[in-house]
Amino acid sequence: MAVATTSDTPAPGPVRTCVGCRARAAASELLRVVAGTDAEDRAVLVPDPHRRAPGRGAHVHPTQECWQLAVRRRAFPRALRSGDNVSGAQVEAHLRDLLTAHAPPSGSPQHRTETGAHSS
Ligand SMILES: [Zn+2]
């Protein structure tokens, strides 16, 4: 591969490539994902929003779209050398939290019945 020129990226700080859509973006806009193990010592993908975990990391836009793309392409096992059947459940949960924080669910589940309490 030829060396790409990076002089056309005005974003401050480090720039990373999203493993989902392959677009470059500031590292601060991407979610870093690292390889870890769960309680049963199986390989899992772990979200690293503060980008402090040591070792290899892969970056992805914190959206379902890019996450699904990356999973379908097996981008994480390739980038992290973590093995093919690595679980992404922790990252999925993290993304779900992020996305629901941005868009709270409409329609509250709580509905009180305030009718007919005092009849007869
Ligand atoms: Zn992306």
Automatic annotation (TrEMBL):
* A Pfam cross-reference name: YlxR
Bias regions of kind Basic and acidic residues — which residues? 111-120
List the protein's name. Answer: YlxR family protein
> Looking at the record, which segments are called Disordered?
97-120
InterPro entries in alphabetical order: YlxR, YlxR-like_sf, YlxR_dom
Instruction: Name all YlxR domain ranges.
Output: 16-83
Superkingdom of origin = Bacteria
Q: Gene3D superfamilies annotated for this entry?
A: YlxR-like
